[in-house]
């Protein structure tokens, strides 16, 4: 009888672990769909998209704490820096989070994790194109079970750089560009840039171009997306 009880207890524990992992895998797949939908809005292919997620007794929230700081470096004039609010969509179950932040999806225990869906931050030999996504939402958080509808709508696009057509602040008024993140996912961002082509990482900053190997042009834009939850 003791053996039967032991096997049953261990078996149920393993079954619960399997079920939880399957639920998290499903949530991760849903966030990949969210990311593709947000990409479509960011690229102008859609004005609004609606997707669903089964909460599986987890919690989803809009986390309003993350920003990116971009600096345009010029050897012949002062640097130009500005901050971009990002915010994140985060699904939590037990100690694991699945999240979306500015074009990237993450999975990890508690804060951070590994980037799954790649963001729209591109560095080539002569051009940097940084496309950020700012999540705006009246929502806070919701939990429980059953399907949740997540509606994302375009809410305007801002060209953050260049700010002038010629001279200072123009598209070619740049030698290199750097970006840093204030986010629970900062380490994952830096790991992504460390692996990405043409980017270099120094401390908490990722850099495209350098004083000895300058780029020729830089573009920085932001897509504002409003998110709403519904049953």
Q: Radius of gyration over alpha carbons?
A: 21 Å
Unreliable sequence segments: none
Shape: elongated
Gap between N and C termini, in Å? 46 Å
Largest pleated sheet:
6 strands, antiparallel
Helix content: 10-25%
Count of distinct strands: 16
- The total number of structural domains is 1
Beta-strand fraction estimate: over 45%
Instruction: Calculate the mean pLDDT score and round it.
Output: 90
Structural class by secondary-structure content:
alpha+beta
Which strand order does the major sheet show? 8-7-6-5-2-11
How would you describe this protein?
By secondary structure, this protein is of the alpha+beta class. The strands form 3 sheets. Strands 8-7-6-5-2-11 form a 6-stranded antiparallel β-sheet, with helices on both faces. A 5-stranded mixed β-sheet has the order 1-12-16-10-9, covered by helices on one side. It is elongated, with a radius of gyration of 21 Å. The protein starts with a helix and ends with a strand. Strand 3 (67-73) and strand 4 (80-85) form a beta hairpin. It contains 2 helices and 16 strands. The chain has one domain.
Quickly list its features.
231 residues, six-stranded antiparallel β-sheet, five-stranded mixed β-sheet, 2 helices, 16 strands
């Amino acid at each position: 009888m003791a053996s039967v009880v032991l096997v049953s207890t261990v078996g149920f524990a393993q079954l619960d672990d399997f079920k939880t992992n399957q639920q998290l895998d499903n949530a991760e797949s849903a966030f990949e769909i969210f990311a593709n939908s947000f990409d479509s809005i960011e690229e102008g292919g859609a004005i609004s998209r609606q997707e669903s997620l089964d909460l599986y007794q987890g919690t989803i929230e809009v986390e309003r704490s993350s920003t990116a700081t971009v600096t345009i470096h010029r050897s012949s004039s002062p640097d130009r820096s500005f901050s971009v609010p990002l915010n994140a969509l985060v699904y939590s179950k037990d100690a694991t989070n699945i999240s979306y932040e500015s074009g990237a999806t993450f999975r990890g225990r508690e804060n951070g994790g590994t980037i799954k869906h790649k963001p729209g931050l591109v560095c080539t030999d002569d051009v940097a194109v940084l496309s950020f996504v700012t999540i705006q939402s009246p929502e806070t958080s919701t939990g429980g079970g059953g399907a949740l509808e997540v509606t994302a709508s375009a809410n305007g696009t801002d060209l953050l750089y260049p700010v002038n057509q010629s001279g200072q602040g123009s598209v070619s008024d740049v030698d290199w560009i750097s970006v840093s993140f204030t986010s629970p996912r900062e380490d994952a961002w830096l790991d992504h840039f460390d692996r990405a082509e043409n980017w270099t990482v120094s401390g908490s900053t990722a850099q495209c171009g350098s004083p000895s190997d300058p780029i020729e042009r830089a573009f920085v834009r932001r897509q504002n997306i409003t998110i709403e939850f519904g049953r």
